[in-house]
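DNA-binding transcriptional regulator, AcrR family
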Amino acid sequence: MAQRQPGVLTPAGQRLLDTASALFYRHGIRAVGVDAIAAAAGTTKKTLYDRFGSKDALVALYLRRRFERWSAFLAGYLDEHAPRPGPDRVLAVFDALAEWQRDAERGCAFVNAYAEIGGTDHPGVAVIRTEKETVRELYVRLVTEAGVPPAAATELGLRLALLHEGGLVTMTAGGQRDALTHARAAAADLLAAALR
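Tokens:
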């Protein structure tokens, strides 16, 4: 079926997206069928297909919206807790991530989704790759603004992104609840060394 790109959703479309988002995150993409989504949202499969075109398009929109929500949350967190460029603003990304994940038992929605759809031509894969690239680019920008020379900022940004992602996976899949605290401490060490 054709992939639709809904702009403003109808109330039924928003209900479907909200319901699908909760179900996809809690149970996984493949485990949740369109019948279950429609029933839980109080709509029909026809309404789902009319609004989104396909389950794959709904999955991609779920991921895009989650990316938008995370980006907005992070921007607000940084503005409130570390508004000026510097090491504190870089490390505040780890604090924001810990806050975002406080009640999220399944960890990173993008990693979870990639485990199910990676290696395919699913439209959600591009969203996942964009989210991961954006995290890396964010760290590069923030460390540059903190005073790390541009020649070193790219490598440091990649290392911080690896700590970010690794901490997140270790916290959830590895069961180590303080993993982001350790990732933040390692990031602080790398950042301090780069600023010497």
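Residues 156 and 190 are 8 Å apart (CA to CA).
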